[in-house]
Amino acid sequence: MRKDKISSAVIRRLPRYYRHLDGLYMAGEVRISSSALAADMGLTASQIRQDLSCFGGFGQQGYGYNVERLRHEIADILGMNRNYTAIILGAGHLGQALLENFPFQRYGFRLEAAFDVDPALVGSTLGGVRIYHLDEMADFLRASPADVGALAVPGNVAAQSARQLAKCGVKGIWNFTNVELPEQELDGVRVENIHFADSLLALSYFISEEPL
């Protein structure tokens, strides 16, 4: 089935499946049933079977799922085996946290460079990645194209920075700016928005609903 026919909700559950299967694989588990997987993840067995059927048949009746194989298949569906490359635009506190702590390689991305305008940062290396001046980005990406740009700049320059990334040929933008980007101006570049405030406020709602 073509990926554009698969719902966003299914796609967004796939990383959860991968994460759980990865834990099982690392623990030495060989197989798991859809009912056991559902119980572990707070889903239903039918939901899991329906989700996975969008991409083919991975289980065997009476056996369940081979953990290693299903983990590998989901990694392949998610593009983790395609050697994607990434850069970070903005090497302030959040950009530095990504550079030093986020395991890009574990998820199939090779982090190539970071870009900033702060003279105190330009020319330095964090997490084994060199930080270049923003003015060098176009030339850098012309020579070494990147698939994804992580956007960690101040909100007042978010849209402008996103347009720069799109102009330089990135396929996707991982947006940490808490600003909605003008996707209609980004030439078909995919945007994944990360809103920390949304998660915190959702948590605020849920704990507010708890009885005192």
Task: Describe this structure as you would to a colleague.
The protein is α/β, with parallel strands linked by helices and 212 residues long. It has two domains: 3-77, Winged helix-like DNA-binding domain superfamily/Winged helix DNA-binding domain (Arc Repressor Mutant, subunit A, Orthogonal Bundle), CATH 1.10.10.10; 84-198, NAD(P)-binding Rossmann-like Domain (Rossmann fold, 3-Layer(aba) Sandwich), CATH 3.40.50. The protein is 41% helix and 19% strand. It contains eight helices and ten strands. The protein has helices spanning 8-26, 34-41, 45-53, 67-77, 93-101, 137-143, 158-167, 196-208, and strands at 31-32, 59-60, 64-66, 84-89, 109-116, 125-126, 129-133, 148-151, 172-175, 190-193. The radius of gyration is 20 Å and the shape is globular. The termini are far apart. 26% of the residues are buried. The model has no long low-confidence stretch (mean pLDDT 92).
Question: Helices and strands in order, then pairings?
Answer:
Layout: H1 8-26, E1 31-32, H2 34-41, H3 45-53, E2 59-60, E3 64-66, H4 67-77, E4 84-89, H5 93-101, E5 109-116, E6 125-126, E7 129-133, H6 137-143, E8 148-151, H7 158-167, E9 172-175, E10 190-193, H8 196-208
Parallel strand pairs: 4-5, 4-8, 5-7, 8-9, 9-10
Antiparallel strand pairs: 1-3, 2-3, 6-7
Helix pairs in contact: 1-4, 2-3
